[in-house]
């Protein structure tokens, strides 16, 4: 004679197993259809998602370590890096503040080289915070924009003077 509690437990177990199986997406369903027990089902789901997370982490890290400022403003560049870092954190692969700063510095144009070198050498004795680095870079960008505007104005003035002289 079977124990009534065992029979009820087994029925609940089978109901849960089938509920899980039918509630999965087609993509997952195809990967777990061979499962006979709920522990096998959970294991197959876990394996699928772990491999997906590892692939996503590799893709994000590759993007992070290959990012360059390009034509972006400093704030756009920093936001993009922060977004990637946040995505890595959300899947359990956080980057250290030191690595975050190194990524920022590595992707900068040569016009930021002196500041990047200064920040890098400071990292040895008195590591800067991420917010300090961001502030320094924003200030440098504003200074570069001012210099660019000034040189454009000087070039325009020189061209006007040349045209007047030629007349």
Brief rundown of the structure:
The chain is built from seven helices and no strands.
Alpha-beta classification: mainly alpha
Number of helices: 7
Shape: elongated
Topology pattern, helix = H, strand = E: HHHHHHH
Helical fraction equals over 70%
Biggest β-sheet, characterized? none
Through-space gap between termini: 116 Å
> Total strand count, please?
0
For the record, the count of structural domains works out to: 2
- Nearest-angstrom radius of gyration? 29 Å
Which stretches of 5+ consecutive residues score pLDDT under 50?
none
The share of residues in extended strands comes to under 5%
> What's the mean pLDDT score?
87
Pfam family, one: Retrotran_gag_2
Question: What does this 3D model show about the protein?
Answer:
- The structure is a single chain.
- Helix content is 79%, strand content 0%.
- It is an all-alpha fold.
- The protein folds into two domains: 66 residues; 97 residues, no CATH class.
- The mean pLDDT is 87.
List the defining traits of the structure above.
mainly alpha; 167 residues; 79% helix; 2 domains
Walk me through the topology.
Elements: H1 4-23, H2 26-32, H3 38-65, H4 74-90, H5 97-106, H6 113-125, H7 130-166
